[in-house]
C-alpha cells in the first residue's frame, strides 16, 4: 500500500516508528526540523507536514517557544466524543483504512440484544462482524447488531467497501445519540489472533447503543480496540 | 465498617457478590423479589431498595414486563462525563469511600507537568498521591499536580478527610472543563500491590487536565482505575 501514500505520510510513519520504539521517548523533545530533514533526506516542508499529521493524530504536541515533544505513543481515537464512520476518522488522520467482513448474517435477537435495542422475543437482527485496519495494522474488531426492520437488505451491501453509517444515512436514518460503556477485557485466543496481539493482552471493550432522532435504538455494537495502539480523548464541560 | 451500613446496603452487597461470582450471570435475569426476600431472610421493601441501589450503580437493569437482569459486573464510574469529587460520587452510589494519602510534597515541575499546566521551568507544584477505596476495596490510585501559586498552603490540608475539589471550591477556584486521555496500562509491582491486583493486570490509565473558568489549567492528574472493578459510561450527542 505504501507506494500510494504521499511522501510526508511515509516520513510521518518513520517518525512514528521512532516514537513507538522509544528512539524519541514519551514526554521528551524530538529533534529539530532541520535535523529531521537531514536524517530522512527530505525537505523541511515535508518534515513540517509529517509533524503536523502526528500532532493532529495526538502523538506529538508543540509549543512555539519550546519545540515539539512526544505527547502519546498511541493513536488518539475520536470514538469517545463523536459518532463517525471508521473510514472517515482514519481518512482525517491520513492513514489508510481497510475493513474485512468476518460475518454478516440474520439472527434472532438474544436477551442481551433485545434489551439493548428494545426488541421483542421474535425480532431479528443482522449481526455484522468487521475487523478494521489502519495502514495494514489491525486496530479494532467490532460486531454490530442492527434490527432487520430498519434495513431489510443490509446483507446485500459490501461492507469491505461501504460504511455502515453511510448506509444508515443513505436510508435517511440520522444518528443523533450514542451511549457507550467502556470496560477492559483480556484478549482470548480468537481476539488475540484477529487483532494480532498476545493471549490475555488488554483490550478496550466498548458496548454502544446508537439512537436515531426519536431515540429509537438502531445499532448495538461491541467493539474491541487494541490496548497497545489506541488512546481515547474525553472532553467534559460543566 | 459494615455495622454502620443500612440493611438494604448489606443485602445489595450480598447480591453484588453473587453477581461477581457468577451465581447471577451477566445478561441473565436474577430471581424474583419474593425469592430473594426468602433467600436473604429480609422484607420485600429491603430487597427492592437493594435492587434500586444496584440499578443506580449500573450492575442491574430492569424492564417492567420482563424483570431484572445483570447488566454489568462492574461499578459504573461517572469520571468520563463529569467533574466530581470521588467522595461525592461514592456517596451517591451508597458505598463508603476511604482515602489514604501516600504522598503530598512540593516539587519543581517536570517538562510533562510544565506542558500540561502551562508552567515555566522554575514553577513549583504540589504532588498529591492518593489511594481511594469503596467499601474497603481499593478502586483508584491517583496522583494530582497542582501549581503552588493557586493554593500555597495545600500541604496543610488533610486529604484523608478533605476533598481536593471541595478545597478548590473553598478558595473560589471553579472547575469548568476537563480534558481526559484514556489508555490501558499493565500494573507494575507498585500499582499491583497498592490496588491489590496481580502483576500485569490491566488498568484504566487516565491523564486529565482540569481547567478553571478562564481556561487556566489548575490540576494535572494521572489516575489508575482497577480494570476488573470499574466501567465508564460515555454519552455522545450530535
Describe what you observe in this structure.
Two copies of one chain form a homodimer. With 238 residues, chain A is of the alpha+beta class. Chain A folds into two domains: 2-70, Arc Repressor Mutant, subunit A (Orthogonal Bundle); 76-232, Chorismate lyase (3-Layer(aba) Sandwich), CATH 3.40.1410.10. In chain A, 27% of the residues lie in helices and 36% in strands. Chain A is built from seven helices and ten strands. Chain A has helices at residues 7-20, 33-40, 44-56, 86-93, 111-117, 164-170, 189-195, and strands at 60-63, 67-70, 75-77, 97-108, 124-134, 137-147, 175-186, 202-212, 217-226, 230-237. In chain A, the strands form three sheets. In chain A, strands 4-5-6-9-8-7 form a six-stranded antiparallel beta sheet. In chain A, strands 1-2 form a two-stranded antiparallel ribbon. A two-stranded parallel ribbon of chain A has the order 3-10. In chain A, α2 (33-40) crosses α3. Chain A is elongated. Chain A starts with 6 loop residues before the first helix and ends with a strand. Chains A and B meet through α5, β7, β8 and β10 of A and α5, β7, β8 and β10 of B. β7 of chain A pairs antiparallel with β10 (230-237) of chain B.
Amino acid at each position: 500500500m505504501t507506494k500510494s501514500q504521499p511522501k510526508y505520510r511515509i516520513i510521518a510513519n518513520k517518525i512514528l516508528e521512532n516514537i513507538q520504539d522509544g528512539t524519541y521517548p514519551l514526554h521528551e523533545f524530538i529533534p529539530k526540523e532541520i535535523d529531521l530533514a537531514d536524517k530522512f533526506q527530505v525537505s523541511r516542508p515535508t518534515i513540517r507536514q509529517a509533524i503536523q499529521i502526528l500532532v493532529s493524530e495526538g502523538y506529538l504536541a508543540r509549543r512555539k517557544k519550546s519545540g515539539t515533544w512526544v505527547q502519546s505513543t498511541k493513536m488518539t481515537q475520536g470514538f469517545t466524543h463523536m459518532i463517525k464512520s471508521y473510514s472517515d476518522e482514519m481518512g482525517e488522520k491520513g492513514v489508510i483504512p481497510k475493513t474485512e467482513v468476518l460475518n454478516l448474517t440474520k439472527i434472532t435477537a438474544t436477551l442481551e440484544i433485545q434489551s439493548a435495542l428494545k426488541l421483542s422475543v421474535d425480532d431479528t437482527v443482522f449481526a455484522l462482524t468487521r475487523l478494521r485496519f489502519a495502514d495494514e495494522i489491525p486496530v479494532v474488531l467490532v460486531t454490530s447488531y442492527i434490527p432487520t426492520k430498519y434495513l431489510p437488505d443490509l446483507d446485500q451491501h459490501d461492507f469491505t467497501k461501504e460504511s455502515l453509517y453511510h448506509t444508515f444515512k443513505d436510508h435517511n436514518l440520522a444518528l443523533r445519540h450514542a451511549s457507550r460503556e467502556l470496560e477492559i477485557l483480556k484478549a482470548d485466543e480468537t481476539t488475540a489472533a484477529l487483532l494480532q496481539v498476545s493471549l490475555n493482552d488488554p483490550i478496550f471493550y466498548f458496548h454502544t447503543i446508537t439512537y436515531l432522532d426519536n431515540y429509537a435504538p438502531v445499532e448495538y455494537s461491541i467493539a474491541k480496540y487494541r490496548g497497545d495502539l489506541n488512546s481515547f480523548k474525553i472532553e467534559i464541560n460543566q
